[in-house]
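Worked example 2:
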Amino acid sequence: MEERLVVVVGYEAAELLDIACVTTSLAMANGIGRPGVPYRVCLASPGGAPVVCGSGLTLQGQQSLERVTGPVDTLLVSGGLGHERAAADPRLVAHVRRLARDSRRVASVCTGASVLAAAGLLDGRRATTHWRYAHRLAARHGEVTVDPDPIWIREGNVYTAAGVTSALDLTLALIAEDHGEELSREVARNLVVYLQRPGNQAQMSMFVAAPAPANDLVRRLVEHIAGHPDGDLTTVALAARAGVTPRHLTRLFREHLGRTPGKYVRRARCEAAAHLLVTTTLPVASVAVRCGFGSAEALRQAFTDRYGISPSRYRTVQVAGRPAR
């Protein structure tokens, strides 16, 4: 089998983990020893210069980005604190665009999506990036449908992954795509990763994701929702509780939370269900009632939409992966 050339694009202030998660996983796939798995990984940088990562550590570039030619199996742009400068560098962006034409697939990790967007490679596509930078990417590139929730997204031959260690999830998925799930699982075991997350699993739990909303009214309602997932949380009921019209409440939620009250409540209830599934032995039907779903089937549908996995399967996988006490 021919070598699969994987070009990882680095630049000043790139994120070391964005690069290492990819290169280590592919090297491990090679090292497991099965014939026919020859990834050749090349760290390319502008001018072949050393990549001084955001952490201060320096990686030696293996090839000048300007000198890399196709065919390329996988072109992957890393993210990092320097992503905005990289996306504003016309020569770097032009070479990424050039190599993309000769690549079987194109990918980004974290804020590397900014470079792909600047190159026009995400136009008309759904894409993800680190949740903290998703709003900025969407504001600057209206032609891109930015979804801040998933771990990674595939649109045709273009892949985008979320923040930092999602590079690991994406690379494991690429290995599985190339050589099957067995090798991907073996690499995951060698990396001591107890669970390979599906691409559409949410990046962040709402319990740890973001600071409390600055708006007092919205913050009080968010606290009420978190404490009463089984209550009447319709937009009308929440608006009445806050003493505002449903229309005004919807505007406030969109402004401060980025979603309508209904969508926020659905997500909060899914998060609450996920917590109960892992921390209790309640039957799924009981979890559904406690979290405000009308039935186990309603929970299953909402949960699968949110996490890409059924509640019962989520419980099995998560509990199996927890360390013994």
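Confidence is low (pLDDT under 50) at residues 204-209, 321-325. The longest strand covers residues 39-45.
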